[in-house]
Structures are given as structure tokens and as C-alpha cells.
Design goal:
The structure holds two protein chains of two kinds. Chain A is an all-alpha fold. In chain A, 72% of the residues lie in helices and 0% in strands. Chain A has 15 helices and no strands. Chain B starts with 13 loop residues before the first helix and ends with a helix. Chain B has a two-stranded antiparallel ribbon. Chain B is mainly alpha-helical. In chain B, helix 3 packs across helix 14 and helix 4 packs antiparallel against helix 11. Chain B folds into two domains: 73 residues, no CATH class; 237 residues, MetI-like (MetI-like fold, Orthogonal Bundle). In chain B, strand 2 and strand 3 form a beta hairpin. The chains are: A mainly alpha, B mainly alpha. The interface between A and B is large, with 88 and 98 residues.
Chain lengths: 309, 321
């Protein structure tokens, strides 16, 4: 036996002792996989079912709903319930449909999102880069304020809005949304601006830039992703709000959620379930679209609510 | 920090102070002032309009100066704890508290278990993880109003799940939580869990992903089964995530309002009333502000019981450490 064959033999033994290399190949249909995927598929079906039922119901005529079962796909597809929900459904004596609520919600959401993000981003910037005495104390109050039940502050705000003449108007509601969006958004922006390299800020200071200059020329362009996250949080949050809408606006200016609830839960008349479901989908459409389009950013937005600074 | 050393310290860093005015106003006027106002006025007999608690009296004028110095106060409509006594003697409030308690406890326990199990399943390096997550999380993007209305429809005894299962041959099958007072709150719970567990799952998943992979390897080398690793190693390590999630869920539960309004309107009768609805109805419809203030102060107390110990643990120890 030569040396080389001995070495080769020793290598073979060693490699056999080491066992197979790399990750253990998994069988595609192992019991473990069947269990995991089986559970997840059942769960996913459960979560998807209500959306499916909503869509299917909204596409059926009332006779078909009365006869058939809610899970069955429509025999005859009709878009009439959608048209009716949008332009004819009644709340009380008013029969303009949900379109009015939709446009009210747009008029509320757009300025609220801009105002709340503008305020909160500047707050966060001041807290991160221009700390002044007492700033942290106000910030702490703000964060604790996020936990106070809204019901506690509802009436004092009614008085304040009445004093400044905004009670019952869209702008009053915009102000309320900006106030209650402040804690979470300020936290979000503060944490983000704190995470940016400080040298950038210092270099700008050395170059003579001041508070607003640094904000608009350096911080703003560098932080577009966080602004998008903030927008996602605010658009869905404000669109979905019900409590503030019902307290601070009048029937003419009710946002979509309030109007939807009034349409569906009104006691008079024959219940038209297909119209109700079409109206429900219409109201959920804006946040759902944002959710499906934004994907990972949405997840980041809601996780931001849970991560403390 | 701005250290230009200008003469008046008040004007140092002035732009930042001006920029922070909305935050300062919100913190002081709305959060502190508004809360204090409501608590104080809960001791009055306010009905349609808030009534003054007291008035200053014996205003003395010093010489020609129109300087007024109050020397005493007269109680106007201070009624002590009367509103609270009435509150706790009102059947509707007791039902509301009971419902909140049942809903809160079930929702906490179940959303923790379901959220964690789903997160653990998604964490198994599976395919289509994004698809599953997207489907489970989408209800969270919907409002409570939409959620409540959909489940009102699904649980409708004449057309919904009950009628479908009866149609399959089980004629005696009964499942109409929204129409029986004893179990209506569980009908709301189903809807609430459907809407909210996705969020818990995402938070838990973030927590699981934060666990060092080496720990899993070590456990596997030692031959510890996966479920034991979860129970005795991973879950104890996720304590901070659990506590934060707990505080978020708990403070959200106390506020539950829209879901009830949409799904049951508090019915049948008063069997699915909740505190937040009590507050709204008394403040804006019952024209009994004092009751609304007292009820909302109780809600504040409930949140304080959860948040203050948490804040103490979370931030108090950090300072000491």
C-alpha cells in the first residue's frame, strides 16, 4: 500500500465520519409540512372568507340572497347594488348615497394627513436635533397622552372648537386628527431623525444653515421613506375613524364611516343586504388599496407603533 | 445643541421652540388640561351644559386699583362623588363593565395565543410567507365599522352561517350570537379577533425574528424539541415584546366603541353595551354630561392601572440602571 492510497482511504473514512454535507434535504410532503401548510391554509381561508362574502353578496340581486346561501357565488352578476350604494342609498331623508360621505372623507383626510405630518415631522426634528430645556418633558406627556382614552378629552375639545368657531366644520375635525396623530407620528419622526448620522447635521451647521434650512434642504429629502410610512399610518387611520367624525361633524359633513353606519343600521325600510355590502366594500376600498399596494411599508408603519424610542 | 451664547437663554434655540409650539399646546392644553377638566367636572351636577364647580367670592378691591383678590370660594354645583355613586348603581354601566371585562380578557388571551402560534408557523422558513401574512393582516387595514357590518351579515341568523349550516341538513343547528343576550359579546369577540390578530402576529413575528439563530442551533444540538424551545427559551426571551403588545392591546380594548356601534348598537337590549358607548350616549345624546364625565374618568383610571406600572417598569428601571 502506497502512501497516496493510504491518504485517499483516510480521507474517504473521514468524510464518511463527517456525514453528509449541507442542509438535510427536506421531503416536500413531510408530516411537518402538511401540518404547517394545512393549518396556514385553513387560517387564511378563515381570514379571507368575510371579504369573499362581502364581494359575492354585493353582486347578487335581493331575490337570490333570500333564496340562496351567502357563500354561493352569484348566479347572475349585477352591479346595481354598487350603483345604488354610491348614489342612491338613504340616510334618514337624504338619499344621495355614499358618494357624499366619500367626498367628505377625502376633504377631511387630505388636509389632516398633510397638517399632522407637517407638525409631527417638525416636532420630531426639533426633538432629535435641537433639544431645548423641557422638550423631553413635553414629549413624555405627549406619549402618555396617546394612552388616554379619547372619551376623556372629547368634551373639552368640543368647548375649544366652539370657542374658535370650528365646531361642526371639516376644519375642526382636521385639527382634531392632527392633535391625536401627533404622539405616534412625533415618535416615528424623532426616532428616524435620531438615527440619521449626526455629522450631516453638524456639517450643515458649520456651513451656516439654520433650523428651517437644515429641515427643508437636508432632513426632508433624506427622509422620504419615513414620510411615506407616516402617510400610510395617517390615511388609513383617519379614513377609518368613526368616533371623531360622529362627535365633531354634522350630518352634512359626516365622513364615510359614519354615513355607512347610518345607511346600514337605519331601521326604516326593507333591508337591502346587497346594497349594504356594496357600501361596506366601497368604504373599505381606500385603506385596502393602500394596504395591498404598500405591502411591506404598511407592516413597517404598524410596527412603528409598537417600537418605543 | 445651540451654544452661541446669546444673552437671554429664553431666545436661544428660538426656532426650535417656535416649531414645537403645536406639540407643547397639545401636551398641555389637550392632554393635561382636557383630562384635568373632565376629571374636575365629573364632580359637578352638569346636565346639558357643564356647570361651574365653584366661584370665587369676597373679591376685595385695593384702593383705586381694580386688582381683585379672591378670598374665598363658594361651591356652586359640586356634588362630590354623587355622579360616581349613580354610575355604579346603574345597571347599564354594570353590564358595560362586565362586557368589557369578558371581551378584554378573552381578546387578550386569544389574540396572544393565536398571534403567537401564527407567527411561529410563519417563522418556519416556509414558502409563500408573504402571501399568508398579507391575507391574515388585511382585516387590520379595515375600520371597525366595516368589520362590524361584515360580521353582522355573516352572523345574521336568517341568511348567514346558521342558515347555511341548517341548509346542509343540520336543522337544529343554532348559532346566532348577535340575537341572544347571553353570548352577544362573544359574537363581537369573533369580529374583533378577526380584525386584530394580524397585528399581534406581525409584532410577534418581529419579536421571533429578533431572537438569535444561535439559540435555535444550540437547542437543536442539545436535542430539545421545538415546542419546548419555544415554551422555555424563546417565550421568556420575548418578554419585552409581550409586554409592549400587552399594553397596546389593553389600551385599545378599553376604547372599544365603533365595533359595538356597527355590529350590535349595544343590543339586544343593553346586553352588549361597553363603557365608551356609555360615555358617548350620556355626553352627546342623553344630555347628562356629569355621568359622561364620571364614566370617562373611570375609563382613564382603568388605563392608568395598566400603563403606570408598565411605564414604571420600563422607564423607571432604565433610569436607575
Amino acid at each position: 500500500m502506497t502512501l497516496s492510497t493510504a491518504i485517499a482511504g483516510a480521507d474517504a473514512v473521514a468524510s464518511r465520519l463527517k456525514g453528509p454535507q449541507g442542509p438535510k434535504p427536506r421531503k416536500r410532503f413531510s408530516r411537518r409540512n402538511i401540518f404547517i401548510y394545512g393549518t396556514l391554509i385553513v387560517v387564511a381561508l378563515y381570514y379571507a372568507l368575510p371579504l369573499y362574502v362581502m364581494i359575492v353578496t354585493s353582486l347578487k340581486g335581493m331575490p337570490e340572497i333570500r333564496l340562496g346561501n351567502i357563500f354561493a357565488p352569484p348566479v347572475e352578476i349585477t352591479f346595481e347594488p354598487w350603483v345604488k350604494a354610491w348614489s342612491e342609498a338613504c340616510t334618514g331623508l337624504n338619499c344621495e348615497g355614499l358618494s357624499r360621505g366619500f367626498w367628505n372623507s377625502v376633504r377631511i383626510t387630505v388636509p389632516s394627513v398633510f397638517l399632522s405630518i407637517a407638525i409631527a415631522s417638525v416636532n420630531g426634528y426639533a426633538l432629535a436635533n435641537w433639544k431645548f430645556k423641557g422638550a423631553e418633558a413635553f414629549f413624555t406627556i405627549l406619549i402618555f397622552g396617546a394612552f388616554i382614552p379619547y372619551q376623556v378629552m372629547l368634551y373639552p375639545i368640543v368647548i375649544i372648537l366652539r370657542e374658535i368657531g370650528l365646531y361642526g366644520t371639516l376644519w375642526g375635525l382636521v385639527l382634531v386628527h392632527s392633535i391625536f396623530g401627533m404622539p405616534i407620528l412625533t415618535l416615528l419622526f424623532r426616532n428616524y431623525f435620531t438615527s440619521l448620522p449626526e455629522e450631516l447635521f453638524k456639517a450643515a451647521r458649520v456651513d451656516g444653515a439654520r433650523f428651517w434650512g437644515i429641515y427643508f434642504r437636508i432632513m426632508l429629502p433624506m427622509s422620504l421613506p419615513i414620510f411615506v410610512v407616516a402617510m400610510i399610518i395617517q390615511v388609513t387611520g383617519i379614513w377609518n375613524d368613526f368616533l371623531f367624525g360622529v362627535v365633531y361633524t354634522k350630518p352634512d359633513t359626516y365622513p364615510m364611516t359614519v354615513q355607512l353606519n347610518n345607511i346600514v343600521n337605519s331601521v326604516q325600510g326593507v333591508k337591502e343586504y346587497n346594497v349594504n355590502m356594496a357600501a361596506t366594500i366601497l368604504t373599505g376600498l381606500v385603506p385596502l388599496t393602500i394596504y395591498f399596494v404598500s405591502g411591506k411599508l404598511f407592516v413597517r408603519g404598524i410596527a412603528a407603533g409598537a417600537v418605543k424610542g | 445643541m445651540d451654544t452661541t451664547g446669546r444673552p437671554n437663554p429664553l431666545f436661544r434655540n428660538l426656532s426650535a421652540k417656535i416649531a414645537a409650539i403645536p406639540m407643547i399646546l397639545t401636551a398641555l392644553v389637550i392632554f393635561v388640561g382636557g383630562t384635568a377638566w373632565t376629571v374636575i367636572y365629573s364632580f359637578t351636577s352638569s346636565k346639558l351644559l357643564p356647570k361651574k364647580l365653584f366661584e370665587w367670592t369676597d373679591v376685595i378691591n385695593i384702593g383705586d386699583w381694580s386688582l381683585s383678590i379672591p378670598t374665598g370660594i363658594v361651591w356652586k354645583s359640586f356634588v362630590g362623588l354623587q355622579q360616581y355613586e349613580r354610575l355604579w348603581n346603574t345597571n347599564r354601566w354594570m353590564v358595560s363593565i362586565e362586557n368589557l371585562f369578558i371581551y378584554g380578557l378573552c381578546s387578550l388571551v386569544l389574540s396572544f395565543i393565536i398571534g403567537f402560534v401564527l407567527a411561529a408557523l410563519l417563522d418556519q422558513k416556509i414558502r409563500f410567507e408573504n402571501t399568508f401574512r398579507t391575507i391574515i393582516l388585511y382585516p387590520f387595514a379595515l375600520s371597525f365599522i366595516v368589520t362590524g357590518l361584515v360580521w353582522q351579515w355573516l352572523l345574521n341568523p336568517d341568511f348567514g352561517i346558521q342558515s347555511v349550516i341548517r341548509g346542509m341538513g343540520f336543522v337544529g343547528f343554532t348559532f346566532d350570537p348577535l340575537y341572544s343576550a347571553d353570548i352577544v359579546i362573544y359574537g363581537v369577540l369573533i369580529a374583533g379577533l378577526w380584525q386584530g390578530t394580524g397585528l399581534i402576529m406581525v409584532l410577534m413575528l418581529a419579536g421571533l425574528r429578533g431572537i438569535d439563530q444561535e439559540i435555535w442551533k444550540a437547542a437543536r444540538v442539545d436535542g430539545i424539541p421545538a415546542w419546548k424551545t419555544y415554551l422555555f427559551i424563546v417565550i421568556p426571551m420575548m418578554r419585552p415584546v409581550f409586554i409592549t403588545t400587552l399594553v397596546i392591546i389593553a389600551s385599545g380594548i378599553v376604547r372599544i366603541y365603533d365595533l359595538i356601534v356597527a355590529q350590535t348598537s349595544g343590543g339586544p337590549g343593553i346586553s352588549s353595551e361597553v363603557p365608551a358607548k356609555y360615555v358617548y350616549d350620556y355626553m352627546f345624546q342623553g344630555q347628562n354630561l356629569g355621568q359622561g364625565f364620571a364614566a370617562s374618568t373611570m375609563m382613564l383610571l382603568a388605563v392608568a392601572i395598566v400603563v403606570i406600572p408598565w411605564a414604571y417598569l420600563e422607564f423607571g428601571s432604565r433610569k436607575r440602571g
